[in-house]
Amino acid sequence: MRAARLAVDHEPDAEKAFFVADLSYVYRQHQRFKCFLPEVEPFYAVKCNPDPYVLRLLAGLGANFDCASNGEIANVLSTGVVEPSRVIFANPCKAASHLKQAARAGVDLMTFDNADELHKVARVHPKARLVLRILTDDSKALCRLGLKFGAPLASVPGLLAMAHELGLNVVGISFHVGSGCYDPSAYSDAIARARAAFDMGRVAGYQFHFLDVGGGFEDHTFENTAAILRDAIDMHFPDRSGLRIIAEPGRYYVSRAFSLATNIIARRAAADDVEAVATNISASAAGGEEQPSVMYYINDGVYGAFNCILFDHQVVQPYVLALSGSFHVPSDVAGDVRVSSVWGPTCDSIDCVCPTARLPAALQVGDWLAFDNMGAYTVCAASQFNGFTLSQVVYTTGGGAGAVETRRVLQSVAVQVAGTDQPTA
Ligand SMILES: *Cc1c(COP(=O)(O)O)cnc(C)c1O
Fold first, then answer.
1. Taxonomically, which superkingdom (predicted)?
2. C-beta 33 within 6 A of ligand 1
3. CATH number of the domain that residue 340 is part of
4. Are 328 and 365 contained in the same domain?
5. In this structure, what are the phi and psi dihedrals at residue 167, rounded to the nearest 5 degrees?
6. pLDDT in tens, 110-143
7. Beta-sheet pairing, 392-396 with 18-22
8. I need a labelling partner for 72 at 20 to 30 A (CA). Which of 1, 221, 265, 363 fits?
9. Does ligand 1 come within 6 angstroms of the Cβ of 92?
10. Same domain, yes or no, for 306 and 251?
């Protein structure tokens, strides 16, 4: 509201796009995870959104962390409240310098999936506790990871024999069904393969006691996925005393916690608006493709937060946040809709946020559009191409369930970390 007011007064930069992060949503996701997967320890995948308050909150809640680089490890440890034993270095292909840095930092739990990595670890970090990442079926995921990572089961005996020969400590098995997994049965297949790999471990002379079920969890299928995962664990690991089970959820924790508010900085409408609307109506009446008659340009795009459209295969839909300075869009205005397209601010024509959206005809330059579910794989991969700055985050703990607890956890973390600011409630 303040941003809208300042923008109307032409305050410099007052129209800047910004995220709103509801940290109590992250809190509730953590409770939900613990409730439905009580035997599984979450290691939050930092790459998904390394927001400092998300990291602090999760650290305070007792979650652990999945890091893929020494930059991420340094980031997590710099919160000042996370011990190196709470980190898994879950990148199967690490630079030797990052391995050495991990050894120095005291991070010794890490994944591998190939022979060269074993030689590297033997040379640079021989005391590491290694987790073998196996290949699973990732065909039912938004972002497939098996093209790049994961040892096929057929290569597992050879890799474990080599690890044993090198005197390395392999403690267990990991997998990742792919990010944005929309078929929860992928987890039961993966657990079956992990079981087979555990048995291969015994043959190679290891007693595995660590199972990492990776990421891929989705908000809207979580309960179902968790049930399938629990059943598969029961079936394939019936006797699991001494077995430590972890997961590496990323998207699940943050996707819905962040929304993005953007300002309409420019608009291009057909010369004759009335005619354009008429064309739209006849096109839709004829069942044909509706062509946008208005183009809106907003101040974040695919080179910024909306990189998720290109890299993470997301489809986003805007809604009207503020129209003519008001947050309440009268229904008669909202009823007069126009097929529109929404574009980012850069000079590149690939910078299209939404090719078709039904938006009120009254929408003008200066009005605000918002987008939900903008917490995962957005801020972290945004660039400043064309000189546009990154959208900043405004924090809230919301007014809903978990708000009080969220503030309490953040305060207790802040007490441990001297001299840091608190998010505004
Ligand atoms: C990206 C990644 C994750 C997180 O995946 P989500 O789909 O966001 O849950 C977890 N583990 C590894 C190894 C990853 O690369």
1. Eukaryota
2. no
3. 2.40.37.10
4. yes
5. 75, 25
6. 999 999 999 999 999 999 999 999 999 888 888 8
7. parallel
8. 221
9. no
10. no
